[in-house]
Amino acid sequence: MTDFPAPRHVACNGIRLAVHEAGDGPAVLLLHGFPELAFSWRHQLPALAAAGYRAVAPDLRGYGGSDKPAAVEAYRMDRLLADVADLIGTTGTAPVVLVGHDRGALLAWQLALVCPDLLAGLACLNIPFMPRTEQDPIDLMRERFGPDFYIVNFQDSIEADRRFSADPARFIDPHDAPPVTRRGDPPAARAAGHRPAGAARCGAGRRAAARPDRTRLLRTRIRGRRFYRTDQLVSEFQPQLA
């Protein structure tokens, strides 16, 4: 197990964020995804510190040791971006190289567009840039991925809340988690509480296998775009915000 630095709590945008730091030098700010914590960066923090950087990894609003406002509107994109921008200002780390994974990457792309002066560079993992759509994103996910997609399910049922709260330790521990089945599994498999051998474990994986042309297109589209100078990002994508 890699040693993980204890957090300090930093007041940002009216809340407190639990922030883990290691090293000295130019700052690298690491934003975790869902359902994760700053602990996801436990291997990167010491590696960056050893390479001469100041690595900073917060638990984002609503996660881990950070404050968790109760109101749904407290998690709007503008509030989340203000948290990160205020953290950069409060810790005196600007300009930072911003690294985001998953949901953290969504924040990172948007922060680069609205606050480019705070960033020296940008690296986004597993989430390409997505311009704003005219359609509500939840409705779009519901159409494309169906009711079993986790983000859609969170909106449409209390199943996730029920499973999370029934036995949190067991739910989180992958070695002691209850078996999961999905719609479309054979009745015998659902009754036995397991997936049939060789079955795809992820609906997205099945769809990608069925549409290899789309997967190739996505890979081609993002190849060579792992790292952006912020001036390049703004000039290329900011007009799409209008």
3D structure, described in words:
By secondary structure, the protein is α/β, with parallel strands linked by helices. It contains 11 helices and 7 strands. It has helices at residues 44-50, 77-91, 103-114, 137-145, 150-156, 159-166, 168-172, 187-192, 203-210, 212-222, 230-237, and strands spanning 8-12, 15-22, 27-31, 54-58, 96-101, 119-125, 227-228. A 7-stranded mixed sheet has the order 1-2-4-3-5-6-7. β1 and β2 (15-22) form a beta hairpin. It is globular. Residues 189-242 have low confidence and may be disordered.
Write the layout of secondary structure elements.
Blueprint: E1 8-12, E2 15-22, E3 27-31, H1 44-50, E4 54-58, H2 77-91, E5 96-101, H3 103-114, E6 119-125, H4 137-145, H5 150-156, H6 159-166, H7 168-172, H8 187-192, H9 203-210, H10 212-222, E7 227-228, H11 230-237
Parallel strand pairs: 3-4, 3-5, 5-6
Antiparallel strand pairs: 1-2, 2-4, 6-7
Helix pairs in contact: 2-3
